[in-house]
Amino acid sequence: METYKNKAQQAGETIKQQGTSWAAINPEYVARMQLQNRFNTGLDIAKYTAKIMREDMANYDADTANYTQSLGCWHGFVGQQKMIAIKKHFGSTRSRYLYLSGWMVAAMRSEFGPLPDQSMHEKTSVPELIEELYTFLKQADARELQHLFKALDDAREAGDKAAEQAAQESIDNFETHVVPIIADIDAGFGNEEATYLLSKKMIEAGACCIQIENQVSDAKQCGHQDGKVTVPHEDFLAKINAVRYAFLELGVDDGVIVARTDSLGAGLTQKIPVSQTPGDLADQYNAFIDGETVTSLDQMKSGDMMIKQGDRLIKPTRLPNGLVRFKPDTGEDRVVMDCINSLQNGADLLWIETEKPHIGQIASIVSRIREAAPNAKLVYNNSPSFNWTLNFRQQAFDAWAEEGKDVSAYNRADLMSSEYDDTELSAEADERIRCFQRDAAAQAGIFHHLITLPTYHTAALSTDNLAKDYFGEMGMLGYVKEVQRKEIRQGLACVKHQDMSGSNMGDDHKEYFSGAQALKASGKDNTMNQF
């Protein structure tokens, strides 16, 4: 990154070339505005963040302790506050991303109002949210740098050379709030051409990483719902190709593709692919189709179909809607096949949608995948659809029982009950939850851990608590005690909401543009000065 002084010098040369007509332009102010707007386009962001993801993937391959994390965000402000908090608490945004959840776009961002996660929302709402998130992250950069510029000016005014040098170094070493976004494109919102066109819009908005799933686009279901229908491998690989072409066309050569498989919970297929040669992808896919062995044409009814499966003829099991059923208990085998084929045909990372957060289950699948693809890495959904408390108490219960430890004091089916909250088993379960991401990264190949819907749930919980207190006996104390007092004491940037919304930056710009005649908002009568 160019230093502040270099940028100011370059701006000065540009201004000087224009003679007296640009005499009112201050080169240092130009440098400040350039630094506050480091990324001019979404493609600049996509190229920058793709390199970060590739470096992080290599770091994880070297040491699984270098796993990465993200939280799903449904609004630019939420993403902005998340990254400001990360910088405040940890000093760096490194290895922390944003996740854009298709579920939350459907539930929170559609003009139709709240919708189920079935690709019914406007496809344009996905790139619009990416652009919004990066607009807010760029504004977080501008705001923090504005504070550093103020510190620099104050140090100069006071004649404090040490403080001036410290401010200068802080500006030169500033770390941006802009981080990678893993963006959910669902099943592509149509055919491969539709996938390509939407991918371009997402990349142009700033996405360096696109996650696509192997469900049927027009029958898409949430990964944690029933009724999922997968597509043949050829169809899915065509969409992976479409995403890659979009990245390459736009010059994001190291863009990242996450191939998600829902096969573990999907028991249906919409179509039977045509096999060209024995053992090809279509033949492998069709080997999982459930059906009745046909020994006589008398078994066939009007409209029935028959396919050859290995050495036998079968009549596929079809539902009244025409969907074809897979053989029972083949989900894991289909997941392994999906993942290997995706990695061998252009995908970079995998997403396996599981029905529970169990490291042993995930690890067993990944070990099979790694027999063919040794560097296979996962993006894993630490889903709010899981009952984490019950799942891990039951896992602890089962481990104790297997070890021969006395579990007679516990009812396995009722372990969610608060009566177990202070027990030894509860403590062990909570420790397993605390270490889940670290242990799963080490044992199950998980490079990136995310929670899809956390800010959806935290918004609901905090609003419920505020409404209960404010409209109840606590009145205004419900806000002051539970919100404002905590904001001030925890040093939340948004307690100064005028500053967060850009008021102080606006004052600076007015001064740049108008000089001494600027009408500024942050004078002595600004009530926010009391903070």
Question: What order do the helices and strands come in, and which of them pair?
Answer:
Layout: H1 4-17, H2 27-36, H3 42-62, E1 68-72, H4 76-90, E2 96-100, H5 102-108, H6 125-158, H7 161-172, E3 181-184, H8 192-205, E4 209-213, E5 229-230, H9 233-249, E6 256-261, E7 268-269, H10 281-286, E8 291-293, E9 307-309, E10 312-316, E11 324-325, H11 331-343, E12 349-352, H12 359-370, E13 378-381, H13 388-403, H14 424-434, H15 436-443, E14 446-451, H16 454-470, H17 476-490, H18 497-500, H19 503-514
Parallel strand pairs: 1-2, 1-14, 2-3, 3-4, 4-6, 5-7, 6-12, 13-14
Antiparallel strand pairs: 7-11, 8-10, 9-10
Helix content: 40-55%
Main sheet? Answer: 8 strands, parallel
Count helical runs: 19
Mean pLDDT: 93
**What's the end-to-end separation, in Å?**
34 Å
Number of DSSP-assigned strands: 14
Molecular shape? globular
Gyration radius over CA: 28 Å
Q: Give the amount of beta strand, in percent.
A: 5-15%
Strand order of the largest sheet: 12-6-4-3-2-1-14-13
Structural class: alpha/beta
Please mark out the parts with pLDDT under 50 across 5 or more consecutive residues, or reply none: none
